[in-house]
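#struct-pred

JT: dropping the chains for the assembly here, can someone run the whole complex?
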Amino acid sequence: MATVSVPPIHKSRLRRVVTSPVTARIVFPFVVIAVWYVIYYTIDSRIFPTPLRVLEFMWEEVTLTSGIRFSSVADNLYEQFGISIFRLTTGFLIAMTVGTILGLAMGLSKAVDAFFHDWVMALLAMPALVWALALSIIFGFGNTAPILTVILAGTPFVVVNVREGVRNTPKDLIDMARSFEVPQGKVNRHVLMPSLMPFFFAALRYAYSIGWKGLVIAEVFGSQVGMGWAIRFWYDAHRAHGVIGYAIFFIIFAMTLEKVVFDPLARRVFRWRPSLDAYQLAEGDFGAVGQEGFLLEDDEIDHDVEIAGMEGHTDDG
Amino acid sequence: MAEIKVRDLHKEFGIGEDRVVALEKVNLDVKGHVFVSIVGPSGCGKSTLLNILSGIETPSSGLVTITQDNHDAEPGYVFQAARLLPWRTVMDNLLFVQKDRSDESRERCQRYLEMVQLGDKVDKYPGELSGGMQQRVGIARAFSIEPDVLFMDEPFSHLDAITARTLRRELHDMWRQTKKTILFVTHDVGEAVELSNRIVVFAKGGKLKDDLQIDLPFPRDPANDEVAVAKAQVLRKFEELDLVAS
Amino acid sequence: MTTTLEPKERTPRSAEEERLIALRKRDTRRKWFWRIAGYVVILGTWQWFSSNVFNSRIVPGPIQIVNVFPDLWNSGRFFESYAATLTRIGVGFSLSFLFGVVLGVATQIRWIAGFFKDSVTISLVSPGLVWALTGLVIWGFEPQGWIFAIFLTTFALVTVNIAEGIRALPKDLIDMSRAFGVTTWRRQREIVIPFLAPFIFTALRFGFSIAWKVTVLTEVFSSNAGIGFEMRVASQLFRMDEFWAWALSFFVFALILEKLVLQHYERKFFRWRQEVTH
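RK: done, full complex below.
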């Protein structure tokens, strides 16, 4: 096993920049556009748009210069968006309220937990599509169906997270406080609330996220206004640039939510935690998350939730 | 018979201000049926030396030659934590490091497991064994490939005192029976004195400071006076070399 | 030097232990009572509402829904539709899974991680609907449409889980195998793959669940076969009992899949974890 000393390689500045992952990240969108153009020239489709056409469309929507009116009720991007946000927020607030109450009840009482458990799991796995179609049949067009969809989609996530929060109360800290005879009010404020916060925050984040996804589907099927309906409008009109344009609006909205609202909030809420939280998933390295939003940190979430995607099955443990 | 030659072995990390020297121009010769302990404070490079000798790390410069009679054999290695594959049985863990899975290999593994009193646990998973038992599996594994040289990196430091004592004795018996060359890293001077014919002393910064012969007869009982005296002498040596805060 | 220990004799259970066992039994009984109570109350209320408050064509009760199943089964419609939908899921998700695994492994190279980082974020964050509609508006009925949708909704999930698994690979075990001169191939087989197995299972579970939702969504819009198609037709004809039968049938299917297939393999793979006694 003979070895020779090896002098350290000195990478040139240019080489370091080119091979840096940050550069890779910047290069990516350009590659996407290039591939887009390649598809455009090779595909045999009359409606496939160029990136420029899509951008043009989006600009027109944003600056209200398109000359196309959706309807007399809500005729442009902003009005549609406003209606959607209204519905989302209403549904979200109800989902948070109902979900928290039920989650607390299920966390505190084994009887309540046994009573509702299977049903919460079933709701968790139910696709928003089913609600969208069924509720629009019952309630027709209007606000009810979309708002109810948001509630039905979001509540189970809230319930599960809050229940988990209750289950994870640090009993050892409470015992410690009791041994020092700390009054109950103080214990609530300094021990229980902070320990519930991460779970409550998770509930909040996912209720909004899932709620938004459900709302959009509900509006596609059961509404004549709203962002979901807007994308439907362009789909029915066979205008791919419209569909893609609105798809991008959706993506921008979702990403803004995550990066501008939830990530900074997560950092503040989890400030005291030394370990990297998978809630910071949009930033940093990839964290292991199920798309409906669950951590794979075993000590936090019980395995019912991991399998939540599989249609209501529970792993009674 | 095995021979280990280390010439001007040097290992460092980082550049400029952050430069850390793990091993500084180490020269060492080990030959034959000896038990050599490598002792020193934490950060003195003892584990790095073992990692380089076993091929896990590469040196910055220098030459290492290991010659064994059985040219095919890799040196055996026993780690601080047993490092067993948790999803494989005890037997499979030993088979994992054999050259093949023939009946011959299986028999050989069975033999070594019996030597460490685990012949009846071959189908258990590591999760079902205690810390001491897991470490025994690790020792059996290292011996089972029948190398001429064995490296051990503080194998008993994670165990409770009683289990460690038992395992020390078993290891010693195995060494006497199989006549191997053992390089044994430890921070416990008493352990080194109990087990070795030779103690190599490292100081912080990877410098080899001293090389001591321990000529007491085997087996050595730690409670024995002579052993205690030898231990005291070695410790005094450490103080001389400024390795212990006096 | 060996020591032998006498096996301990089975001591009779103390009163304390007896009490604990009794309490546990009582707890289990109570849980079952409330669980069944939940079914009775919820299903009962639902049935009552459907019959007395709503038009039971629009809001069918559990009894009506269950009654639809035999017809769907006997007429063969179940098989046709499931065949269509499952084929699509199979094709789309297999592609996505393969790509996801490769990408997950490749993200060890930091440049690649940087390159795909935003695509993963976007895929995780956007509603499946946007991919479904985009694919459909461009390609319509053609396979490219639903493949596009399934691929873009699910690949990121697989990537993320695999990447996480790879990052968690136990370096100490890999070093050990290198110290013993174990070949790379053997290392992959005996260390990497068993270690990654749970991550792969998770990716499969979540990915499949998402894939199914997106596939059905595409079928609702533009298809002439499959579960989504059946659901659309049922809702258009106001046959909501059929609609719910189709929706709930997939729950049953997924349950069977989970219990029979996945759990069987999980038990095989993870026997070593279950055997831990202390």
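JT: nice. Residues 16-53 of chain C form one domain. Chain C touches chain A through 85 residues (CB under 8 Å).
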